[in-house]
Specification:
By secondary structure, this protein is mainly α. The chain has twelve helices and four strands, in the order αααααββαααααββαα. Strand 1 (102-103) and strand 2 form a beta hairpin.
């Protein structure tokens, strides 16, 4: 019986260790500029990881000290957390489907349209007061300033195939407006200012640029999509492994209880 309970304890400790990649994914998201400004996914992920850690350690203690009531509570709580983890992974996948950008004429980089992204994400950005806070946060980052240090000429900038979505959407006007390049963040004389509402929104002021443009929101959502997909892969793999560990834990717990009942039977207690 002792060996069976030690096996349950080891399995529960492994379940607690599986919280580490979940917590790490949340911390990684919080270090990304766009996620730090938006603050949507990282805290739920971190909270879920901490909950898995706490419940896993509780299950380890319950098995080590042979506390059946606490083990049952652990199995119920871990099942709920497992369901929550799976649901979160599916939800993140669902809201980040589609949208990969469109090539701009005469440019190597891509541009992004807000309508290509999920309504749920767009609604989060448009919540009262949220976008004002987000764009102020983005303006305080070196996202756009980095362009001036990297690209000196129009030819270099137009050939920038690896321009980040956030830079493409927030640091320059849409290509369809027909602005003339001076620097990556300074543009003049639009040829077709009526082609897009963002054409009139663009400003050469460092604190404004295109932070109020729909293209900036689209670039931000594309950045979020890439980062959330990476975090979602970690969540999905962790959920699959945790499911296997949970199944092993249930089997080991049932075996331990069966052995205990058999021992009591042999000793004449039943």
């Amino acid at each position: 019986m002792a060996l069976n309970y030690m096996a349950v304890a080891a399995i529960n400790f492994l379940a607690a260790l599986l919280s580490i990649p979940v917590i790490a994914a949340g911390i990684w998201l919080s270090t990304q500029t766009d996620n730090a400004c938006v603050q949507l996914l990282q805290w739920p992920v971190i909270a879920l990881g901490v909950a898995i850690l706490a419940v896993g350690l509780a299950g380890f203690v319950a098995a080590f000290w042979r506390l059946p009531w606490l083990l049952l509570a652990y199995l119920v709580a871990m099942l709920l957390l497992l369901v929550a983890l799976v649901c979160l992974a599916i939800f993140v996948f669902a809201v980040t489907t589609g949208a990969s950008g469109r090539p701009a004429p005469g440019r190597a980089f891509l541009e992004y349209d807000l309508g290509d992204y999920s309504g749920w994400l767009r609604d989060r950005l448009d919540a009262p007061g949220r976008w004002n806070r987000i764009k102020t946060c983005l303006a305080d980052t070196p996202t756009c300033a980095d362009l001036n240090q990297t690209y000196a000429t129009a030819q270099e900038f137009f050939a920038a195939a690896w321009l980040r979505p956030l830079q493409s959407g927030c640091c320059k006007p849409p290509t369809r407006c027909g602005y003339t390049f001076v620097t990556p963040t300074y543009w003049i004389s639009p040829i077709n200012a009526a082609a897009d509402p963002d054409c009139a929104t663009w400003s050469n002021e460092q604190a404004k640029y295109c932070y109020s443009c729909d293209s900036c929101k689209a670039g931000l959502l594309q950045n979020l999509r890439r980062e959330w997909r990476r975090a979602d892969l970690i969540l999905a793999v962790t959920a699959a492994v945790l499911l296997a560990v949970y199944a092993m834990g249930c089997y080991a717990f049932r075996t331990a209880k069966t052995d205990e009942l058999f021992r009591r039977y042999r000793q004449g207690y039943t």
